[in-house]
Write a structure and sequence with these properties.
Elements: H1 2-30, E1 40-41, H2 47-54, E2 57-58, H3 59-82, H4 89-195, H5 197-224, H6 245-253, H7 259-264, H8 267-273, H9 278-291, H10 298-306, H11 312-316, H12 320-337, H13 348-358
Antiparallel strand pairs: 1-2
Length: 360
């Protein structure tokens, strides 16, 4: 079919070309000075054919015949060239098949999209449930830890009051006894002083001895008084070494207003909401916990953290000998580096006191 159509277009176009040439020839011939509308024209190409059909033609008649033929053949050529061909059955089948495949593919895509949306929604619900559960567990752990800290604080306060009462009673009794002895000695010294100069020298010695006794009594009182912790749960976060005013404001913005809340806070939250890293947040929490143990100061905390002790429970579970060995090695290194003095190096008795206080 396309071949036949091409041949028809070529023939029609050729005839249009010949008609146009005849029209041009007539126009050129007509423009001559000695030729008028009624002059007889015999073209070279089709003159004999026209003469045999219609006889001799005038220039004007031949012009209109050529013009008409040109338009007729041009229209015929356009009709043949632009006439719509019937669709090819094979092409139609191919389009139908492609359309079916596209429809099937669209259904598969819609099903996949629906399944993917369902999976995303399930994942979102699962993540939300997990996040809610984690928050609930954190809140429960926080409340439980605060309750334990409050209980420990009440126990320590009660033990402190009982010990202070006992110490005051014993110190009062000892003071009365010592004052009675001192009065007797003072009376005796005065009597001896009245006898001779030698007695005066003895009186001075007795007075010096009395001063020493007073000093010893002061030391006894210090030893009998229970040690106090450096930190309490209601102290402000700035009391912890390493927390300045700016970090304290950031912590309060998170709802952390005291040491107890700092200890129970999530270090990941502090890492995300402040300029402090997670490791630093955990170290600050460890420092706060250890400073709440009586008789432990900042230098002792550094030694304990260096030894791997980061909580009160870990300290309470330590073996005295093993912990003393680790602390001794770390203290030697700190002494060489000039970080602590020899007096600040803890003794085994002090380490034993740390463990004992951590267990209350």
């Amino acid at each position: 079919m396309p071949v036949k159509r091409g041949v028809a277009v070529w023939i029609s176009g050729f005839l249009t070309f010949l008609a146009a040439l005849s029209l041009i020839a007539v126009v050129i011939y007509w423009t001559r000075a000695d030729v008028g509308p009624n002059s007889i024209l015999r073209p070279y190409l089709v003159g004999d054919l026209l003469s045999s059909l219609i006889g001799d033609s005038r220039v004007e008649t031949y012009f209109w015949i050529s013009l008409t033929a040109t338009f007729i053949f041009l229209g015929l050529t356009c009709i043949i060239a632009y006439r719509k061909l019937p669709p090819d059955p094979e092409i139609v089948k191919m389009f139908v098949k492609v359309g079916g495949n596209l429809a099937a593919l669209r259904k598969i895509q819609e099903a996949s999209a629906t399944e993917l949306a369902g999976s995303i929604e399930n994942s979102r619900k699962t993540s939300q449930d997990l996040f809610t559960k984690v928050n609930t567990n954190l809140e429960d752990a926080k409340k439980e830890t605060l309750a334990v800290l409050e209980k420990q604080e009440k126990t320590i306060q009660k033990a402190h009051r009982d010990m202070v009462s006992t110490v005051e009673t014993k110190v009062g009794e000892t003071r009365e006894e010592m004052l009675g002895v001192l009065k007797k000695q003072e009376t005796t010294v005065r009597e001896v002083g009245n006898l001779s100069k030698r007695g005066a020298a003895t009186l001075k010695e007795q007075r010096a001895e009395l001063e020493n006794i007073k000093i010893k009594l002061g030391k006894i009182e210090e030893k009998l008084m229970p040690p106090q912790p450096k930190l309490k749960s209601q102290d402000s976060p700035e009391e912890v070494k390493g927390i300045g005013p700016r970090l304290g404001e950031d912590l309060r913005a998170l709802g952390i207003t005291n040491v107890g809340e700092l200890i129970t806070a999530d270090p990941t939250l502090i890492d995300e909401k402040t300029r402090v890293s997670r490791d630093m947040a955990e170290r600050l929490q460890a420092t706060a916990q250890l400073l709440m143990v009586p008789s432990i100061d900042e230098t002792d905390v550094e030694l304990l953290i260096e030894a791997g002790i980061t909580s009160r429970k870990e300290l309470a579970d330590q073996d005295l000998v093993q912990l003393s060995r680790r602390i001794r090695e770390i203290a030697k290194t700190y002494l060489k580096e000039g970080k602590i003095s020899k007096d600040e190096s803890p003794t085994i008795e002090e380490i034993s006191s740390w463990i004992r206080m951590a267990r209350y």
